[in-house]
Each structure stands twice: as C-alpha cells, then as structure tokens.
TrEMBL record:
<dbReference type="InterPro" id="IPR033130">
    <property type="entry name" value="RNase_T2_His_AS_2"/>
</dbReference>
<dbReference type="Pfam" id="PF00445">
    <property type="entry name" value="Ribonuclease_T2"/>
</dbReference>
<dbReference type="InterPro" id="IPR018188">
    <property type="entry name" value="RNase_T2_His_AS_1"/>
</dbReference>
<dbReference type="InterPro" id="IPR001568">
    <property type="entry name" value="RNase_T2-like"/>
</dbReference>
<keyword id="KW-1015">Disulfide bond</keyword>
<feature type="active site">
    <location>
        <position position="58"/>
    </location>
</feature>
<comment type="similarity">
    <text>Belongs to the RNase T2 family.</text>
</comment>
<protein>
    <submittedName>
        <fullName>Uncharacterized protein</fullName>
    </submittedName>
</protein>
<dbReference type="InterPro" id="IPR036430">
    <property type="entry name" value="RNase_T2-like_sf"/>
</dbReference>
<keyword id="KW-0732">Signal</keyword>
<dbReference type="GO" id="GO:0006401">
    <property type="term" value="P:RNA catabolic process"/>
</dbReference>
<dbReference type="GO" id="GO:0033897">
    <property type="term" value="F:ribonuclease T2 activity"/>
</dbReference>
<feature type="active site">
    <location>
        <position position="144"/>
    </location>
</feature>
<dbReference type="GO" id="GO:0003723">
    <property type="term" value="F:RNA binding"/>
</dbReference>
<dbReference type="InterPro" id="IPR033697">
    <property type="entry name" value="Ribonuclease_T2_eukaryotic"/>
</dbReference>
<feature type="signal peptide">
    <location>
        <begin position="1"/>
        <end position="20"/>
    </location>
</feature>
<feature type="active site">
    <location>
        <position position="140"/>
    </location>
</feature>
Length: 250
C-alpha cells in the first residue's frame, strides 16, 4: 500500500518535472564590477581581459511572487535523496536546478556560439575560481536557466537584449551618478534615476568595500515570464544599502 502510494507520487512527480515551471517573474540582476572587486575578497579578471567599466549581468532568475513549501508531502515520503534526484533542488522562494544538478544539463558551447562575444562583454565572470566566463554562464544555466521554460539560446539572447535596452551605466551617468573614488550618492537618487530611465522601480543591493563603506553592488529589475519586458516587481527585497552609497571606480 505504502509502496503503491509512493509509486503513484513518483509518477505524478515525473509528470510535474517534465511540465512547464510555474514561476511568476524573473529577476534580471546586474552587478557593478567595481563593487564586486573592491571588497576584502577581491576579484579576478576573466581570460578575455578586464571587463569594461559597465554593469555586467549576474543572472536572469525565475522567482515566485510568494515563497512556499513545494511538494512537502512527496519529499517526506520519498526522502530528500530520491526527491531531489527526481525533481531537482527546487527552493521555496524560487525554482532552481530544474533538470537536476547533472552534467547532461550543462550548457553546451555550440548552443550559444553566436552569442559568445556579446556574453563575454556583457556577462563576464569576476570570480577567482575560474577565468572562464563560460563556467559562470553554465552554472547560471543549470541553476536558474533550466527553470525558465526557455531554450538556452533564447535564455541568453533575451538577457543580452534586456541589458542592451536598459543601459544602467548610461542611465545613472545621465543623472550625474558616475563612478568615483570619493563621491557618495543618496540611494533615493540612484533609485529615482533608474525609475526615470527604465520606467520601472528596481531593487537595489549593496555591499561594503574594504573600508566598510556601503556601495551599490547589484540592481534587480523584474521581468515578465517571457524574459522580454520589464514589469513592476511583485515583491520588494529589503535593501541593505545605507542612505548614502558609493559607486566605486573600476
Ligand atoms: C552603456 O553606456 C555606457 C556609458 O554611456 C557605455 O560606455 C557602454 O558601452 C554602454 N553599454 C552598452 C552595452 O551599450
């Protein structure tokens, strides 16, 4: 009896895992390279060379409008190992690893070969783990892209198109917010500039430089499920920014 229930659940889970992911929106996350690099941790430049002093893509992340406990019963019955091997490591606030954490879900270079030059410019790695930006894209694909209901080429092409359509570096510069070693800017002026420039309000994420000063690190824009248009964010992240933030040189 127990076995039959578990088997039934298994079958329905397999059906669910093959179906479209139900998420509500994407976070399109861009990072300021100066703020990535000047923390105590530091950074490394990719094999393709020092990136431009421009916001770079961190990721395009499917997200739920509300956190919830997915498949709680199935997980309890199957146990974590079996559960995760079937449905992947879906989290409570966003889906992730929708194809599981397997190598056969890795991104293949030929799938995005015509995008590689643009990705190297717009989505460079700054991690010291590897100078190969491809590993960054592949990680993002496995963790987030596999939950996007998009093919790899569309997933990366749409992220690039979003970045090109809303140039944060230019939008901020237009409001007098330019990289500087000493200047600080009010968070509200940064936020207002982005709202003016894109038509939508962003969530801002800050980190601290090696001296402990607050600086603009990442900008989260919300995007529709097709990854084509900005939308009003269904939820607002709590900002860790101080009232005044830096935008360090890179
Ligand atoms: C964004 O704008 C900046 C500043 O005007 C410029 O240097 C950069 O090349 C632009 N980026 C893209 C991807 O067009």
């Amino acid at each position: 009896m127990k076995l039959a229930i578990a088997f039934g659940l298994l079958l329905s889970l397999l059906a669910v895992s093959a179906a479209a992911e139900r998420f509500d929106f994407f976070y399109f996350v861009q990072q300021w390279p100066g703020s990535y690099c000047d923390t105590w941790r530091g950074c490394c430049f990719p094999d393709s060379g020092k990136p431009a002093a421009d916001f770079g893509i961190h990721g395009l992340w499917p997200n739920y409008a509300q956190c919830h406990g997915r498949y709680g019963l199935a997980r309890a019955v199957l146990g974590d190992d079996a559960f995760f091997s079937i449905v992947g490591r879906r989290g409570r606030c966003w889906p992730q690893y929708c194809g599981g954490d397997y190598d056969d879900n890795a991104l293949r270079p030929w799938e995005i070969r015509d995008l590689i030059a643009s990705l190297e410019r717009s989505w460079p790695t700054l991690s010291c783990k590897s100078g190969r930006s491809f590993e960054f894209w592949s990680y993002e694909w496995k963790k987030h892209g596999t939950c996007s209901n998009l093919e790899p080429h569309d997933y990366f092409a749409r992220a690039l198109a979003l970045k090109a359509a809303h140039n944060l570096t230019a939008i901020l510069a237009g409001a007098g917010i330019v990289p500087s070693a000493t200047e600080t800017y009010s968070v509200s002026s940064v936020s207002d500039a982005i709202t003016q420039g894109t038509g939508f309000t962003a969530n801002l994420d800050c980190n601290r430089d090696a001296d402990g000063e607050s600086q603009l690190y990442q900008v989260f824009m919300c995007v529709d499920r097709e990854a084509k248009r900005l939308i009003d964010c269904p939820l607002h992240k709590r900002s860790k920014c101080s009232d005044q933030v830096k935008l360090p040189l890179f």
